[in-house]
Amino acid sequence: MAESSSISNPDANSNLSRKRRKIEPKTPAGAPTETGRPRWQNDVEQQIYSLKLVDALCHLRRPDSAAATSRAVRDAADQVLAVSARGKTRWSRAILTGRLSLRLAHINKKHKKAAKRAAVGESRTKKPAVQKKLPPLEKKVKVLSRLVPGCRKVSLPNLLEETTDYIAALEMQVKAMTFLTGLLNGAVSSSAAASGDSSLADRG
Amino acid sequence: MSSRRSRSRQSGASRISDDQIADLVSRLQQLIPEIRNRRSDKVSASKVLQETCNYIRSLHREVDDLSDRLSELLESTDSDSAQAAIIRSLLM
Question: Does the keyword Lipoprotein apply (chain A) (predicted)?
Fold first, then answer.
């Protein structure tokens, strides 16, 4: 554990100093080749994530106070998580490019729907050769591939690898957000208590 | 159907061996708390996949709940005190 933290510390420093950094394609020298759970279970990584998330959330609030919807928070959290992956995994790249292609997908969907209605298309299946009897295992693999972003057409071993990384990242996300929620809860209640106390003091 | 062993479905360059898949499934198995706590070595691959999907879905739901709460909290507090509180706690 000490080993991993000592390796990731230089990353942490460079991360904090360059907040707006894009994903760099090359891996930093000395980074561990095994990018699985140890990376996401690192406390330092979690703290960095919390800081970046707070930064992103505060930027959300500035232009328009009504923008802090739950969906916006979730999107920001996913974005920051994907950035923390440093472009090494497919799901993170899918999240980051997802926002760009989301609007295109919407437009495409509308065009497709109009075209279908005009042609009264009967073949709604995407694949021409539909296997009726998918073994239950393959069905589950399909479901899993839909849950992990960007992994619909990925081979099975890659999918399983992406899944392990994705699960570890999600766990870290949950931990960091729980931590932030607790902090904000404390901040809100303490400020409320402070204002309550001062009003009491005035009366007393 | 039993002769559908051919992995030509997969677009990978090499044939994927059962051993490889078994190895990855066992790795996945370690991650999922449900299966980890049961401590049985004979969990089938289908069970592992099922539990994985359930676990990911529950994690998604947790993140949604947390972002609900976070958005509410952000509404009621100003960003300066929030940031100050967070940085303070992270530095200590």
Answer: no
